[in-house]
Amino acid sequence: MRGLIVDYVGVLDGTEEDRQGWRELLGAIRDSDVKLAVLSNEPEGPGAERVKADAAWYGVENVFLSGETGVEKPDPQAFEGAADQLGLSPKECVLVDDAIENVHGAVQIGMIGVFYQALERQAVELRSLFGLNR
């Protein structure tokens, strides 16, 4: 796997403890030469600016918002567009999302889908998928 695409609302916008945990996890994944992106159905406006600012705090440079792209998850074009902007095929990417229909949509185009429920659970899964030993 060469790319990790993460939803924002319901995943990265949790408690301060979870946010710090995500920041450390994303840093470790990025340090293993994986490209990172946030993919959100956020419309344009103040919410979009918060998503971009938080993505930067997490060390994620690539942010794809439906309000800017005109395509919402679970439309396959949303996932394909994010992978393409990372310079990767969908089969090289993992998507983490708290909406099962979005995970299903990503899997249908060849991504590995991770259904987000709790950071501790998904951290174990992501460390395994990206070959991290911590």
TrEMBL record:
Q: Which UniProt keywords apply?
A: Hydrolase
Transcription recorded as keyword: no
Name the Gene3D superfamilies for this protein. Answer: HAD superfamily/HAD-like
* UniProt GO MF annotations: hydrolase activity
In terms of superkingdom, the source organism counts as Bacteria
A Pfam family that this protein carries is Hydrolase
Show the NCBIfam families listed in the entry.
HAD-SF-IA-v1 (TIGR01549), HAD-SF-IA-v3 (TIGR01509)
Q: What is this protein called?
A: HAD-IA family hydrolase
